[in-house]
Write a structure and sequence with these properties.
Blueprint: H1 3-8, H2 16-37, H3 46-57, H4 65-88, H5 93-117, H6 124-148, H7 159-167, H8 179-202, H9 206-226
């Protein structure tokens, strides 16, 4: 297998890298929707919410203590749900991803319905329903990806990815920056955010959420297909971090 091929498919992780890149696009889509239409709150990037919560408590305008707290709390609940799924399917990475995607799809599709039928999805109960559903879905995703432990593909956080590109580069004296996979992760997040923003600004908030749901369904179908036959990449131990 060539070096280029191993960027997306290798013996250890099989088809997981391209699937996780698609989930990274989902992150960009849902965070674009939440930040631009739900009151400057993230549903995937919890580092941002912790910072926003501090700003809001200090009295910063256009930031909501309640929105950030709701996002953080339901993200943690999603993490618990994802952790339980990971325990249930601890020995098969493909089935683990498939089960987690089922939970995530239900939550995101419910968010699409709320956004589509609510007269003002950016206000009142509809706003918080969207935050709760999306943050829960991304908590499930984060917990699942953490257990899958695919190198340089966290799907929601790029800080360490960008640090790795710089710190492991030949300029910094490193020997392996893994530029290919890391760059693809950055591009995937950027594309998701760009498309999500365009859909929010020129269509409505339901559009990027529908796009995210569609990608999740594609990933779920692909995961089911590649998990039908035994493969070394799918089998892991219960001790995988």
């Amino acid at each position: 297998m060539s070096v280029q091929s191993r960027v997306l498919w290798d013996d250890r992780d099989g088809p997981l890298p391209p699937l996780l890149l698609l989930l990274t696009v989902v992150t960009g889509l849902v965070d674009a929707a939440s930040f631009l239409r739900l009151g400057h709150v993230f549903v995937a990037n919890m580092t941002g919410n912790v910072v926003f919560l501090g700003f809001a408590i200090a009295g910063a305008k256009e930031l909501s203590i309640r929105a950030s707290a709701f996002a953080l709390g339901t993200f943690l609940l999603g993490g618990v749900a994802g952790g339980r799924v990971a325990v249930r399917f601890a020995t098969h990475r493909g089935r683990l991803l498939g089960a987690a995607l089922a939970l995530q799809i239900v939550a995101v599709v419910a968010a699409v319905v709320v956004a589509a039928v609510a007269g003002r999805p950016d206000q009142g109960a509809a706003r918080y329903a969207l935050i709760v559903l999306l943050a829960f879905a991304m908590g499930v995703q984060n917990a699942t990806v953490r257990r899958l432990a695919v190198s340089d593909l966290t799907t929601t956080v790029l800080t360490m990815t960008l640090t790795g590109i710089a710190a492991d580069s030949t300029i910094a004296g490193g020997g392996d920056s893994k530029l290919g996979r890391r760059s693809l992760a950055v591009i995937a997040m950027f594309v998701g955010a760009l498309v999500g923003a365009l859909l929010v600004l020129h269509v409505d908030v339901a559009a990027p959420l529908a796009a995210a749901a569609g990608i999740l369904v594609v990933v779920a179908v692909a995961t089911r297909a590649v998990s039908r036959t035994p493969a070394a990449w799918a089998v892991t131990s219960k001790t995988r971090p």
